[in-house]
Amino acid sequence: MIPDISDAIDWLKHNPNIFKNISRGIERETLRINENGNMPKTDHPYSIGSALTHKWITTDFAEILLEFVTPKSNNLNYSLSFLKDLHKFTSKQIKNELLWPFSLPYFIHPNNSVKVAQYGKSNIGKIKTLYRTGLKNRYGDFMNIISGVHYNFSLPINFWKKWRKIKNVKNEKDIISSEYLKLIRNYHKFGWIIPYLFGASPAVCPSSIKNKNSDIKFKKSKNGLLYLPWSTSLRLSSIGYQNDSEKKLKINFNCLHQYTNSLRNATKTISEKFKNIGLKDNLGNLKQINTHLLQMENEFYTQIRPKQKIKNNEFLSDALEKRGIRYLEIRSLDLNPFSPIGIDKKQILFLDLFLIWCVLADAPKMNYSELEFYNENWKIISLEGRKPNQKININNKYEKETLINISSKIFKNLYKIAEHLDQNSNNKYYKKICKEFEMNFKYPELTYSSKILSEILKNGIKKTGLNLAKKYKKEFIKEKMTILNDEILFKESIFSHQKQKKIEKKEKLNFNEYLKKYNSY
């Protein structure tokens, strides 16, 4: 089951700097909350900037769901410092509010009253809001205000130039896209290692999921918490952030054209379930963009997605077809509650190591039933990954192996890559990280999910979350910025508002015409 990478390791020995200048970007989501732990009904603070046009600070589903976005960089310390500076600035602007440190919200407002994000009067702003209104009507508030970290990763061009030669592929765009898709297939097979190590959502409040149909048999703590003793990430479970479009469309990652066609078909295929919601309410207000399986291509939720920079409001599928895969978006990270910014350096270095292994290791093309088979392992890990002697599926439905045995085989390969990467560093980070995280399989109590479950079983989610949120806000306000400063961020805030107004002034089509044109395309 574990691919042999011995030839690739030999190749690495003759290419010592091949992974220098990995490009990274981080997107961190987090809810604004009141000092008493409740969700405020306040709008996105004007002083932060326009959520439509700000380069680094926006909103996701709701007005209270912030998203911090770092620019692309090959300097990891720069990216983390940049992300922290965005948190420092925002913490001052939200006055008495705090940033919720957990992926799962403490509770949601009664009667579905979470206000979806607003992006102004322009057509592009209105369709962004309507898309989120559709998400609200399709999946409810709870799923849509679940927070996470998205990690954007791309290998250096020098790697692709040399890798193309040994793969004997003439076209650089083709080799990059096909090898990234291979990486994605390996991620689906083995990526459960990420929620095992970094999952941090093993418990949920009963009020949050009271309207969700779930066959999960929760335990109930003394303080009324619903939890699973061996769970790693309920965020990635059936109560978490997902839709069923992948099952209906049978999307695969074998070739770029198949993938992009699947996305396009999803935005054209009528869903009976969403058709029943309707397009308008009794007052004539729009309820969703359309009744298709996906309103937009962004609605396709999966653990990892191929991405390309969008130009002139083009569709992602078109951008991928024209220019190939530029980078990958890893979407399986819970917020790290032990980090003020939701992620730390050790996690990113491990992700780099694991993703490099995924591109070096062979990954035969897989049909949808095989993809679904491997995705079952993600479900096992999310619900009971820390269970003693836990087994997961390998090769076929009748063959299983213990998690600790499979992980030890993976780590043997990771150590070999780590040794290569550490040749270019005085700190020997990668081997240290391998040793640290491999111990988590031998001692599951070291995992984030185990540590945070102990805390919230003792003190409850609300108290634990508030204590962390207050602690981190004090740190943010006390510490000085290192990359950015108030002047830069206030200038960006002013510029973003001006940019939004310019977009709105240039608008020619009324929104109904714009929406009709969008759906016809």
Description:
This protein is an alpha+beta fold and 521 residues long. The protein has one domain (6-520): Creatine Kinase, Chain A, domain 2 (2-Layer Sandwich), CATH 3.30.590. It has 19 helices and twelve strands. Strands 1, 2, 3, 4, 5, 9 and 10 form a seven-stranded antiparallel sheet that branches. It has a three-stranded antiparallel sheet with strand order 6-8-7, with no helix packed on it.
Number of helices: 19
Instruction: Give the helix/strand class.
Output: alpha+beta
Beginning-to-end CA distance, first to last residue: 43 Å
- The value of Rg in angstroms is 23 Å
What is the residue-averaged pLDDT?
93
CATH class: Alpha Beta
Helix coverage percent of residues? 40-55%
- Overall shape: it is globular
How does CATH name the architecture? 2-Layer Sandwich
Sheet-strand content, in percent, reads 5-15%
**Poorly predicted residue ranges:** none
- How many separate domains? 1
* Largest sheet: number of strands, sense, barrel closure: 7 strands, antiparallel
The tally of beta strands, per DSSP, is 12
CATH topology (fold) name: Creatine Kinase, Chain A, domain 2
Compose a concise summary of this entry.
The protein has helices spanning 6-13, 76-93, 123-139, 141-144, 157-167, 172-190, 193-198, 245-249, 256-266, 272-275, 316-323, 345-360, 368-384, 403-422, 429-442, 448-459, 461-478, 486-505, 511-520; strands spanning 23-33, 57-59, 65-69, 98-99, 149-154, 203-204, 219-220, 226-227, 304-307, 327-333, 391-394, 396-402. By secondary structure, it is of the alpha+beta class. Helix 2 packs across helix 17.
